[in-house]
């Protein structure tokens, strides 16, 4: 691994409690770099746009629900094209890499970086690194041109390939240096962004004029600070097909139960949104929700009750739900993948078996259970229309930031406005569904399932929450925010 040194956060304070958490810039360690006029000013498509360039002082507020007396709070630098850039077009040698699991929209982001660099900035050298991080030092590379990427947004997956594990910082930065790469676009989840952060630290340590831009990706929608991750909308939409199938199967037979397992290793956003969108779901189980099988008011009793009332039911379960229960009954060993992520036990199969055992044992009613596991089908598809547009904006924001000399940043919408966010803000915490929040309450009222929470569970969950309207001011309090981030579901 590379340098352990961490760049100190760039905090800029203003009036009335205004704080800007800025991202690094190449001139922080290469102060004499020359600048050039942005070639976009001569681009026929953009030159007519009034105020196309972002004002140097534009920032985006992290919190937009405020009180009269609230301090202005934390802000991020607004993404977008700047009047002056730090690279000449023919000087740029960019590369793109995709890491971690698949997600709808990966190819769109690749396409839009390539086409954007070509069309807007006149950059003609863009290299695709194949097979994730380890591709920097052990795989082939491919030259990317607008022609070679023209149709790729219509395909699922990533044309570059991806992988878990294999992040060797020194070898990666050696490869960047040897190839003369000076803009690195890294698309991936929390693990990938941690990797991007150490690559940036090493590049800075070596004093290289190389901009590192992260584009956050995760199907689970568990990346902090940003409004939503790309591909999530597509995944929720695709999940409807599985839920519909489960519903049709369940309502066509006597005491039919449809169980659908959806992705969500540590957070249940896909399951929660797919459930809310469908309205056919009777029960949604997510990693954040402690539930038990046996006992008064617990899951098996609820299933029995719902079957008696309706004659059928649909259960959506996120893959990370009930892992404690599953591990107990399967006496599991703790396995990890190449990136160090916990490998989960199949909660869908386990739950289906437990339900069948319960009804066989009790001989109260004969049930008909169908288990549907569309896990990979919801992420191995092309992105839908709204994700395609979103991916375009992410790619453009990353490209404008790198051209403007910003580095060590990731991009994403914060309250609807795209911003440059320091890596540590999204790698330090993972977003989770807050089960004492209004969004989960909406789900409970839609499914009419029990909360499965004891008063102790409610107290514990509330303790983890930040007071809803409190605006945090100084560094200490901001740290507290990172430990207890205000969850995105609450925003609605
Ligand atoms: N702490 C870390 N430091 C450096 N590299 C890391 C770190 N964590 C993960 N990586 C690297 O990032 C890459 C992707 O990580 P991982 O497999 O965890 O997926 P991810 O980016 O979190 O995406 P997702 O979990 O959404 O599929 C891997 O190559 C892994 O080696
Ligand atoms: O089988 P793979 O490729 O490791 O990916 C599975 C994991 O990737 C994710 O989609 C994202 O982290 C998880 O929800 C899921 O557990
Ligand atoms: Mg991850």
From TrEMBL:
Location of the region described as Disordered in the Swiss-Prot/TrEMBL record: 451-492
Annotated binding of Mg(2+), by residue: 190
InterPro entries noted in UniProt: ATP_PFK, PFKA, Phosphofructokinase_dom, PKF_sf, PyroP-dep_PFK_TP0108
Catalytic reaction(s) noted: beta-D-fructose 6-phosphate + ATP = beta-D-fructose 1,6-bisphosphate + ADP + H(+)
EC id: 2.7.1.11
GO molecular function term, any single one: 6-phosphofructokinase activity
Residue sites binding substrate per the record: 218-220, 263-265, 319, 376-379
This protein's pathway: Carbohydrate degradation; glycolysis; D-glyceraldehyde 3-phosphate and glycerone phosphate from D-glucose: step 3/4
Bias (Basic and acidic residues): 456-466, 474-486
Site features described as Important for substrate specificity, chain residue numbers: 191
Domain Phosphofructokinase: 95-400
Alphabetically ordered keywords of this record: Allosteric enzyme, ATP-binding, Cytoplasm, Glycolysis, Kinase, Magnesium, Metal-binding, Nucleotide-binding, Transferase
Activity control: Allosterically activated by AMP.
Enzyme class: transferase
Residue positions binding ATP: 101, 164-165, 189-192
Compartment(s) where it occurs, according to its Swiss-Prot or TrEMBL record: Cytoplasm
Pfam families in the cross-refs: PFK
GO aspect biological process, one term: fructose 6-phosphate metabolic process
Record family assignment: Belongs to the phosphofructokinase type A (PFKA) family. PPi-dependent PFK group II subfamily. Atypical ATP-dependent clade 'X' sub-subfamily.
Protein's recorded name: ATP-dependent 6-phosphofructokinase
Organism name: Ensete ventricosum (Abyssinian banana)
């Amino acid at each position: 691994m590379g340098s352990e040194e961490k760049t100190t956060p760039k905090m800029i304070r203003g009036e009335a409690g205004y704080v800007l958490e800025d991202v690094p810039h190449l001139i922080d360690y290469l102060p004499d770099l020359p600048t050039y006029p942005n070639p976009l000013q001569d681009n026929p498509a953009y030159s007519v746009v009034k105020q196309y360039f972002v004002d140097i002082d534009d920032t985006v507020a992290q919190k937009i629900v405020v009180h009269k007396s609230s301090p202005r709070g934390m802000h991020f630098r607004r993404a977008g094209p700047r009047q002056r850039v730090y690279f000449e077009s023919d000087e740029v040698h960019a590369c793109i890499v995709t890491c971690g699991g698949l997600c709808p929209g990966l190819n769109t982001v690749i396409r839009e970086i390539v086409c954007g660099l070509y069309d807007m900035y006149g950059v003609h050298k863009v290299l695709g690194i194949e097979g994730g991080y380890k591709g920097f030092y052990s795989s082939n590379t491919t030259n990317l041109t607008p022609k070679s990427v023209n149709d790729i947004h219509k395909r699922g997956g990533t044309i570059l390939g991806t992988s878990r594990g294999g992040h060797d910082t020194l070898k990666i930065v050696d490869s960047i240096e040897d190839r003369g790469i000076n803009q690195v676009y890294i698309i991936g989840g929390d693990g990938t962004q941690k990797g991007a952060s150490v690559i940036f630290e090493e590049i800075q340590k070596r004093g290289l004029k190389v901009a590192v831009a992260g584009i956050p990706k995760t199907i689970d929608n568990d990346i902090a600070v940003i409004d939503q991750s790309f591909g999530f909308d597509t995944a929720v939409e695709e999940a409807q097909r599985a839920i519909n199938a489960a519903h049709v199967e369940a309502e066509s037979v006597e005491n039919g139960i449809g169980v659908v397992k959806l992705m969500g290793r540590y957070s249940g956003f896909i399951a929660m949104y797919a459930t809310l969108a469908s309205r056919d779901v009777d029960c949604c189980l997510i990693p954040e929700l402690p539930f038990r099988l046996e006992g008064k008011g617990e899951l098996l009793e609820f299933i029995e009750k719902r079957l008696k009332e309706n004659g059928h039911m649909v259960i959506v379960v996120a893959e990370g739900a009930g892992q404690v229960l599953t591990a107990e009954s399967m006496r599991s060993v703790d396995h990890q993948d190449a990136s160090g992520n916990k490998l989960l036990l199949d909660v869908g199969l386990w739950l289906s078996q437990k339900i069948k055992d319960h009804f066989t044992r009790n001989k109260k009613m004969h049930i008909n259970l169908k288990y549907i596991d569309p896990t990979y089908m919801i992420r191995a598809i092309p992105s839908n229309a709204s994700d395609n547009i979103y991916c375009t904006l992410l790619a453009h924001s990353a490209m404008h930031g790198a051209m403007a000399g910003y580095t060590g940043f990731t991009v994403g919408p914060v309250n609807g406005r795209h911003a440059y966010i320091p890596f540590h803000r999204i790698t330090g915490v993972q977003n989770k569904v807050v089960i004492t929040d209004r969004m989960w309450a909406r789900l409970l009222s839609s499914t009419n399932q029990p909360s499965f929470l004891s008063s102790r569970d409610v107290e514990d969950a509330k303790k983890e929450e930040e007071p809803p309207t409190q605006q945090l001011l100084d560094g200490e309090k901001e740290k507290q925010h990172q430990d207890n981030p205000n969850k995105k579901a609450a925003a609605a």
